[in-house]
Amino acid sequence: MKILVVGLGLMGGAYCYNLSKLDKYEVYGVDVNYRAIDYAIEHKYIIDGDTSPEVFIPNMDVIILAIYPQAILHFLENYRDLFNEGQIITDISGVKSSFLNKAKKLALPADYCSSHPMAGREKVGIEYSEKVVFKEANYLVVPLDDTKEESIKVISKIGIDLGFKNVTTMNMDSHDNMIAYTSQLAHAIAVALVNSDTNENTEKYIGDSYRDLTRIAMINENLWSELFLENKDFLIKHIEEFENQLNLVKDAISNNDKDSLKKYFIESTRIRKGMEKDGTKN
After folding, report:
1. Which of 155, 170, 185 finishes a domain?
2. Half-sphere exposure (CA, 13 Å, Cβ side) for 77?
3. Beta bridge partners of 50
4. Is residue 104 domain-shared with residue 127, that is, in the same domain?
5. Which residues contact 239 (CB under 8 A, 6 or more apart)?
6. CATH of the domain at 31
7. Can you give the pTM of this predicted structure?
């Protein structure tokens, strides 16, 4: 199977690195950055690469778009005439509805089946892509209303071959609502926590709790600002729900209400343990 990865950054590079190890895939790459292409070829992530997608598109079986949401729509519009009916196009974006609803109107000749690898690192660039860990992570498949069943199977199999533990199929609105809570809200909290620091020499006093909570505050500002704004309705809803829960804890502390605090702690422990029981540890 011939695969073209568009965007040889951290995640695009991780896809190339892992898929190129498997004999069943021939992996090619496209990027605007010659350095990323040269790196991918030199390290045998890809067979060949170019800055021009036209070189590869017509001959590919699967095209993986590892680029920003609005860049995805731009790519589909620009190269629509090069796609063919035998192809499958997927993206790995962290939001879906904002651009997929527009993409559906393009009536692409290729079959479209979106996806989302729930993995990454706090780094930017292809040189860090070997360290991206897919094992034990979740992989979401987000088909459109008219996506063929065979395409869903192909994109799901790519997730399995990459090493993801859980492969789940869901519609785009369910995806964006869930991701706003499990990913984007978590990043927003981490950013706010780090930026609220008014102490001196905090780094001398942090322990595992702070370290674990704030790891994702080291964030790609270009990507995540776009992700937040593209999914703002769902994200704002979850931020407000979080604020309500935080205010309950705050009020209990203000009122010396130990019983309420214990109730909140017991409930959070019950819910989190339930996630581990169901195998959802990440």
Report:
1. 170
2. 11
3. 30
4. yes
5. 185, 188
6. 3.40.50.720
7. 0.86
